[in-house]
């Protein structure tokens, strides 16, 4: 007897007509036909069943604060940072918790059950840390939240940040963060990378740095991060987020840089929505896209995972907690429109991001956690095209969110009574 069986599912790896049997909080069987009954059954009717979406780069302390204390009129990164600096002294634990919990509700509805959030530790009150630690505990039953100690204004540039970061880690923050390109000089940036990697090695923690989020091709802190990763034996435990300067770097230099990153097993986290919005602001035309070299990094064997970064905050007035929106943008900006390209993009929203976050028990195989999403789409390619409704979101074997299928009623003589966008998928196999 199973607790739950999902029947007739299509899986991201191309398997079709699969049944998934769940006992308790684990997947107990994944096979073409389960000859057994269950307390509850869901017929996926040939729709895609995926592991949950994973966001390895987010700012939950700022989310849903759009308009506080005022709008970002220019829409630039610099004004966003200035706005956050104005808002930060007014932050309260209660307001931070409320906004973060509301965002987690939205995330769950979108099948997003794993998030890594950077937490600004610049304010010596560390109210952001207190709030997000409380949120992490409150949502643990339905969403996994990792926290990064992030010195938003610079590890050395901001007075008190060195002490505040260590205090945040002592309080229970999971990961060491940094922002070397925001230090006052290139040498200070390099020194911050070394210091932060040393802290991570001594504490046995991962590293996740905002790195080279700039159009300046001479911002090369990712090279230092890769070298220090090897020096401190942190291979596979370090992530470089954004890396937008790689978009503008000399190709010969990049031909040496990418192998170094591969040797260090750096996890790469581009953020397509925010990168295409904020980069290239000093350009007239031609205007740079700003997104890092996604295709080349994937082809070199690096683990590339996409982040949402921001939702309705001082930096980004849009966003919906939908990781398929992130992937949809990546397809366009990275010009990865081929069938295999799109499969890789979908992996960057799921399996690759899970690898970046070091998630255990993630996937759709026997003994994995029973965390699943049923989408109103046939396969990953159609999911990325349509950004479809999440018909059911399952956490540890329990359905925690449902959304009806999106079907439009037509009232046109001689035409069908309804339109389901998923029926427009091409007939060829993927």
Automatic annotation (TrEMBL):
Keywords: Hydrolase, Metal-binding
One GO MF term: metal ion binding
InterPro entries: Amidohydro_3 (IPR013108), Metal-dep_hydrolase_composite (IPR011059), Metal_Hydrolase (IPR032466), Metallo-hydrolase_Enzymes (IPR052349)
The keyword Hydrolase is assigned to this record: yes
Source taxon at top rank: Bacteria
GO biological process, one term: cytosine catabolic process
The keyword Nucleotidyltransferase is assigned to this record: no
Pfam families to which the protein is assigned, alphabetical: Amidohydro_3
Residue intervals of the Amidohydrolase domain: 40-400
NCBIfam families: PRK07572.1 (NF005748)
Protein's name according to its UniProt entry: Cytosine deaminase
Organism: Sinorhizobium glycinis
């Amino acid at each position: 007897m199973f607790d739950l069986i999902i029947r007739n599912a299509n899986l991201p790896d191309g398997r079709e007509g699969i049944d998934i049997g769940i006992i308790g909080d684990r997947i107990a069987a994944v096979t073409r036909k389960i000859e057994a009954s269950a307390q509850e059954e869901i017929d996926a009717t040939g729709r895609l069943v995926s592991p949950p979406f994973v966001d390895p780069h987010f700012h939950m302390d700022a989310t849903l604060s759009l308009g506080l204390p005022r709008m970002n009129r220019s829409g630039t990164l610099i004004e966003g940072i200035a706005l956050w600096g104005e808002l930060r002294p007014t932050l309260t634990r209660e307001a931070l918790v409320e906004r973060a919990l509301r965002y987690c509700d939205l995330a769950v509805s979108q099948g997003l059950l794993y998030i890594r959030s950077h937490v600004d530790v610049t304010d010596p009150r560390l109210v952001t840390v207190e709030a997000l630690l409380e949120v992490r505990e409150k949502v643990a039953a339905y969403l996994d939240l990792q926290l990064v100690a992030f010195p938003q204004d610079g590890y050395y540039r901001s007075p008190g940040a060195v002490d505040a970061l260590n205090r945040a880690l002592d309080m229970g923050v999971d990961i060491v963060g940094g922002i070397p390109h925001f230090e006052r000089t290139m040498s200070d940036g390099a020194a911050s990378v070394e210091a932060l990697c040393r802290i991570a090695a001594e504490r046995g923690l991962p590293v996740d740095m905002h790195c080279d989020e700039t159009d300046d091709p001479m911002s090369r802190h990712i090279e230092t991060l890769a070298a220090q990763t090897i020096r401190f034996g942190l291979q596979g435990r370090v992530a470089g987020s954004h890396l937008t300067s790689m978009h503008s770097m000399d190709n010969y230099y990049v031909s040496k840089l990418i192998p170094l990153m591969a040797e260090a097993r750096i996890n790469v986290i581009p953020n397509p929505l925010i990168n295409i919005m904020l980069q290239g602001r000093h350009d007239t035309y031609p205007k740079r896209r700003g997104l890092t070299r996604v295709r080349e990094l994937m082809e070199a064997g690096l683990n590339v995972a996409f982040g949402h970064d921001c939702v309705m905050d001082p930096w980004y007035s849009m966003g919906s907690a939908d990781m398929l929106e992130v992937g949809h943008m990546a397809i366009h900006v990275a010009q990865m429109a081929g069938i295999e390209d799109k499969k890789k993009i979908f992996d960057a929203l799921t399996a690759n991001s899970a690898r970046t976050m070091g998630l255990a028990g993630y996937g759709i195989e026997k003994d994995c956690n029973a965390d699943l999403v049923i989408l109103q789409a046939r396969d990953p390619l159609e999911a990325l095209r349509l950004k479809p409704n999440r018909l059911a979101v399952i956490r540890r074997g329990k359905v925690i969110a449902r959304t009806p299928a999106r079907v439009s009623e037509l009232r046109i003589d001689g035409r069908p009574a309804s339109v389901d966008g998923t029926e427009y998928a091409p007939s060829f196999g993927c």
